[in-house]
Structures
1.
Amino acid sequence: MCGFAEDFLIPEGTGSGDVRELIRARRQFIEDPASELTRRFFDSFDWRLYRGGASLEERWESGRRRLLFRQLHGDETVSWQSIEVDPGLLRDLPQGPVRERLKPLLGIRRLLPLFEIRSRRQTLCLLNEDEKTVIRLLLEENRLRDHAHHGAQPLAVRVRLLPVRGYETELRDTSRMLNVDLGLEPAGASVLIEALAVTGRQPGGYSSKLDYHLDPRERADATAKEILLGLLDTLEVNVEGAKANLDSEFLHDLRVATRRTRSALTQIKGVFPTELVEDYKTRFAWVQQITGPVRDLDVYLLDFDGYQASLPVPLQPKLEPLRDFLVGHYDEVHKAMAHALGSRKFRSLLETWRSFLQAPIPEHPTAPNAMRPSKEVADERIWRMYRRVRKEGRAIAPDSPEEELHELRKSCKKLRYLIEFFSSLYPRAQIGALVKMLKVLLDNLGRFQDLAVQAGHLREIAEQMSVEGRAETETLLAMGALVGDLLGQQQQARIELAQVFTDFDAPENQSLFRDLFAPTRA
Amino acid sequence: MKTIGVYNSKGGVGKTATAVNLAYLAAEEGNRTLVWDLDPQAAATYYFRVRPKVKGGGKALVKGKREIDAAVKGTDFRNLDLLPADFSFRNMDLVLEDAKKPTKQLARLLKPLSEEYDYTFLDCPPSISLVSENIFRASDAILVPMIPTTLSARSLGQLMEFLEDHVQLERLPVMPLFTMVDRRKRLHLELMEQLRVQYPGIFGTPIPYASEVERMGVHRMPLPAYASSNAATRAYRALWDEVKRGLTG
C-alpha cells in the first residue's frame, strides 16, 4: 500500500532465531514472549469470500476463539468477532462486525473449513533512541494441517512488518534493511494463498457458471461431449454437499446442472444416437424427480421471511405453524433424497454417462450432425429456437391459456441454455446483452408460473396440515391470505408480460439475433 | 466516538495521569483510543515516549494546512494512539481567536477522527481560556480530577459557574473525581465528605496517593502497564467502569 513489501520470506534452512540475531546486530529491540496461534481458514464451496477479495479465519489465541475478517488487498481495517460454535451459515452467526461484513459476500452459502495453520510467533519491538517502539516485526513459523493430508507440513518462515502509526520513515528503513541488508525476499502471497498452493487447491476453482472455450471448427459431437462433461463435473462435485445438506446451493447447482444436461442432450440435436439420447433423458429426468421435493422445501424456507412480511402484521405470527410443518417434514424428505443420491442406480448413471462422454468420438457416426462444425450446428439450433420463442410469444394474447405461457417459458429456457453453452463462439458483448434480455423475459415468465405452482402447493399443504390436525383456523386463514397474495403477484406478472415481450421483440434485438445466428443467404 | 475532556483549571491535580491511565484501560479492552495532549508542557506526550512535535504547530492544524490524522502517532500499546503536544500550543488561544467560530475549532478538528476512534481523551492545560471553552464544546463529558483540598475544590465551583453561564454548555455532564487521596489526612476525608454532599455526582472511586503513580515519569508508560496490581491501578480500573456507566447513563 505504501510501495514497499510488508511480508518477507526467510529462506529455507534459516530459522527465525538466526534472523533475530541478524536484526539484533543492527537495531535495538525488545522481544515479546513467543506465543502459539491456531488459525482455521474458511470459505464457501464456491469461493465467495476469495472472489470478493476477502478472507475469514477463526483464531484460537490465549484461550479466546474469534473470527477475523479481512480484505486480501488494500489496507482496509480488519473486523473481529468472538464466537462459541463453529462458523457455518450466516444466520447462525451471532450479530457482530464480522457477520455484517460477511453478509453481502456469503449470502446463503455455508462457510466450510479450508485448512488449519498453526504458528509460533514472536514480536520484536524495534526502538528509537527514546526507547519508543517505532515498528514491530512479527517472526512467524507456520505449519499447515489439512484434512486431506496427514500430519503437518511446514510453510515458509515469515517476517511481517507491523507499522506503528506516524513512523513511516522507520517503516521504510526497516523494510529496506530486511530486503537489502538481510537479503530477504518479499513474500508475493499471503499465508492463505501459500497454503492453498501447497494443498493443490485452486482458489476460485469452482463456479456453477458455464465457462467453455469452444473451437468453432471442432466436430459437433465432440463439442457436445465437452459441454456435457463440464456439466457432469458440476453435478458430481455437488453431490456430497447436497447429501449432507451443507447448504441449499449444493442441491440447487446439482439440479441446474441436471436440467442443463437434459437440455443439451435434447437441444444439440442429431449429434448422438437417438436411443442413447432417449435413455439418458429419462434417467436424468429421474434425478430431477428425486431431488424436487427437497428443493421445493428449500425454496419455501428461503422465502419464508418474505412470505411472512407480505402478510398484514396481525397475521404474520399465525404463519409460524407452516414453518414448523415445513421444517418438520424436511428431514424425512431429505433422507429419502440422500438415499436416492447414494443408490447404485444414481452411481451407475453418473459412471456410465462419464464413460460415454470420455470415450473417443466414433470415426463413422450415424447421427446426422455429428461431424458438422460446431459453429454451424450452434447457429442453426439457436436460430430455430429463437424463431420458436418469437412465434410463441407473438401468439400470446391477454386471454391465452396458462399452458401457452408455460410452453413459451420452456422454449425461452432452451434458448438461453443453448446461447450459454455456445457463447464462446460469439462476440462476448453481444452474447451478454442477449442473455440479459432473455433473463428479463424469463424472470417474468418464471414468476408467473412459479407463483401459481407455489400457490397450488400451499393449498395442498394446508389440506395436509388439517388432516394431521396441525393447523388452527387462524393459520389456515393466514395461508389463504398468502395464497391470495401470490396469485395477485402472478396476475401482475401476466399483465407485465406484454410489455416485457414487446421489449424482447424490438427490431434492434431481432437484427442482433439475425446477425449472430441466421443462415447467410447464398 | 466519545470525547472525554480531562480538565481542571488548577495544575498538579493529576489530569495527565487520569487521561493517560484511563485511555490505556479503554484501549486494553479493545477500544480504539486516542489521547490528545493539548498541554504545551507535553507530559502525556512524554509518558508515551513521543517527541513533542507537530509539524507547523497548532496553527497548521487549526488552519487546515496539516491534516490532523497525519499528526497522530501510535503508542507502544495496541489500540492506543497519541496526538502529541507541541510547544506552540502555548499560543493556541491566539490562533483560535483568529479562526472563524473560535469556540468550535477543536470540535471541527476532531470530526474526521470520529469514525476512527471509540474514545478520545483530551488532556487539557490548566487554565480558563478559549482553549478550555473549545474543549468543553468538543467533549461529551468533562472529567474533573481534584485533590481533596480547598483550592482544587474551588476550581470545580468555578467550572460549574462557567458552564451554567453558557447556554450551549449547560447540559454538558461534569464528572468530578478525587485524586491523590491520602486516607491518613483528616482534611482529605473531611473535605471529601463535605464535597460529596455539595456535588453528588462525584465518582465513588477515589484514586489513592501512590508513589507508583509518580513513577510514570520514570517508566514513561501508563501505570497499569508496569504496576498492574497496584492499589492505584485497581482504583483506575474501578473508576473507568464508573466513567463508562456515566457516559451511557
2.
Amino acid sequence: MAVNRAETTKVIIDHREAFFRMIDEIDSSGQGRRASEEFTVATYERYLSIATDNLTDKERWVVLDALSVTNLKRNKMLVFSHDQTGRFLLVGWLREMLRSFDDMRLRGLTQPDLNHLHERLAVLLEQVKGPEVLWIDNDQGFNELVRTVHDVFNDVAYRLTQNVAALKGRCDALAKIIDSADYSSMDRAGQIAKALEEIYSIHERNVIPTLRFLDPKLAIKRTVNTGGASNVINAPPMRIIEQVIERFGESKKLECLEQLKRVEFQILSLSDEVTILRQGLEQYIQLVEAQRRRYEVIESRYNRLRDEVRDRQDGRRRGFRIPMDSLIFDKAAKFRGLKDHRTRKGGLLDWPKGAGREYLDEHLRVIRERKEIEAVISRTPRTSREVDPNTLKLERKLREMIKLMDEYSVPSPCGDVFLQLHDYLKERLYEYELPDIVEAIGALREPLVASATQKNRIEHGRWSYTYHVRSLGDDSAAEEKRA
Amino acid sequence: MNKELSQQIFKAGQRGELINRLSMTPTGLDTNLLYREIFENETEYRELYNALPLDLVSISGEAYFIRESEQDDPYMAVARNIQVLLDLIARGLQVCGLMPELVDPEGFGLTWDYIDRFDKEEEFSDILYASGMGRKISVEIENVLIGRQIASWNQSNRLVLTTGGSAFFRELHQEDAALTGVMKN
C-alpha cells in the first residue's frame, strides 16, 4: 500500500533506531564500506523486523508498508535501488536528518571535504570579482550572484557547524569509554584501545584541518579548478570570505554586506569551539602518544632480543646462549641477587675441605631418603636398592682415596713407604682409619722392596698395623721385573 | 617488629620471592601483611638484614626482596629470566592488540588462550632457550614469575602481575636514553 512522503518521513523518524543500527554497522565496518552509506536490503529488513517486533499486527503492517524499499522509491527518497545487488541509498537530506538526531553519528569533515569547500569559495570569489557583474539591484545576473553567494556562505556555515557538532559528539562518546578505564574484560580493554586510536584519528584528520580552515592568517597554497582553468589559491578560506564581503562593501550593497558579515561571524565563532574541543582532546592525544611510545619501546626491546638470538643461531653447538653479562639484560640488574637462598636450590657451594663434612654426609643421606620416598609416592616401577648410610660413606671415602692416590707419588728417598703414606692420608683423607691404608697400598705405582728383618708398627685410633718396612725399589730391578 | 611476621618475611626472602604491597586473595587484591610489617619497621628490618649480611631491596615502593650484600659476581639468572619473560609478555600483548594495562594487578588478566598462543610462537621459544630457559613460556611463567611472586593468577584464573612485577614491567618499557641511542645507531 502506498504511503505518502510526509507520512513516510514521520514513520522513519518514529523508527529511527533501526536506521541508527544500520548507520552504526556501516561506521564500524571497513574503510571501503564506510565511504559509502548504502544499505543492503537484507540488513534493512532484518533491522526493520527487530524494530517492529513489539507492535500489533496492524501497526506493524502500516510501518512495513511505509518503510518498504518500493514505497521509499515511489516517494523519491532513494538515490538508487539496485535489484541485482540488493543495495539502495537514501537521499542526502534523509541521511543527514537521521545523523543529525544524534551528534555521535554525525560525520566530521575531513581534509578532502574542506578542500572542496575551499574550492567553492575560491570559485565564488572569481565570480564576484568578474568584470561582467553589474552591481545593480534589479539586474537578474546580479540577483543570481547574490543568491549564489548566500547559498555558498550558508552551506559552508551549516557544514562547519555540523562538523563541529559531529566532532564534539563523537569525542564525548569516546572520552566516556576511555575515562571509564575499565579493564574488567578483554572486550572493554580492546574498546579503550580503539577509542584512543579513534580520538587520535579524529584529532589528526578532522580537528586540525578544521582549525586550519578557520584560521584567516594561515596561508595554504592549493591548486584548484576554477571555471575550467587551474588556478592556485593562496588565500585561506576565511580570507576569501572576507574578500567576497569586501567586494559587496566596495559596491555599497550594505544590506547584503550585513547579512554576509553575520554568516562570517558565525563561522569564525566555530573556531573558538574547535579550539576548546582540541584542548579537551589534548590529554587523550598525550595518552595515545605515550601509549605509542610505549609500544615502540616494547617493539625495539623485543627486536634487539630477537636479533641477538638470531645472530647466535649459526649452527654451532656452543655459544648459542646469550651471555649473562650481555647489555641486553641491563634492566634486569634491578633484581640481581634474587635467588632461592635455601640450600637445596641455592647456587653452587664451595664446600670447605674437611670442615663440616658430616653435615654434607647427612644432607646427602636425607636427599637419598627423600628421593626414595618420592619414588614410592609416584608409584613408578623402578629397581631401587637399599642404601645403607655406611655404604654411602664408604663409597664416598673410596672415591676420595682414589683421587688422593692419583695425586700421590712416593718421595725419594723414602725409608718407610707405609709410614709416609699413612702420614699423607692422615692429613688429607676425611675420617681416615688405619685399615684404609691397605686399599691405598694397592694403588701405589712405585715398586717397593720389603726388608726381611726390619719391622715397624703404626698405631692410629683404635687400630695398629705391624709390617715389614718397605722402601723404594731399584729402577733397573723394576724394569726387569716388568719385562 | 612482629615475631611471627618477621619469620614469614625471612622465609619468603629465603625462597627468593617478592613481598608485594598487595597480595592476591580468593576475593581479589588485599593489603599484604608482610609488606606492611616491613614498611612500618623498615629501619629495624634493614639493620637486621644488614647484619646477616643481606640487603632489603625496595622495588619502587611496590615490593621488597632480600639479596646477599654486595658480591663481586651478583647472581643474575633469575633477574634475566624475569626480564625476558616480561619482554615477551609485553610483545605478545602488543601483537594481539591488547593494552599492557590488561595485566596490571587489578586488570582483567591474560587468559590461558593467549598464553597458549604465546607457547606456539617459535621466536618466543628460541628467545627463551637462548636465555637459558625451557622452550615453553607457560612453564617458565609458572616457574619464574609465579614462583617469585612477580605475577599471580587472579580469582578468575587469569594471569596478572603483582604490584612489584607491574612496577618493573612499567619501568622496563619506559623510554630510556641508552635504548634510544642504540636504536638511532
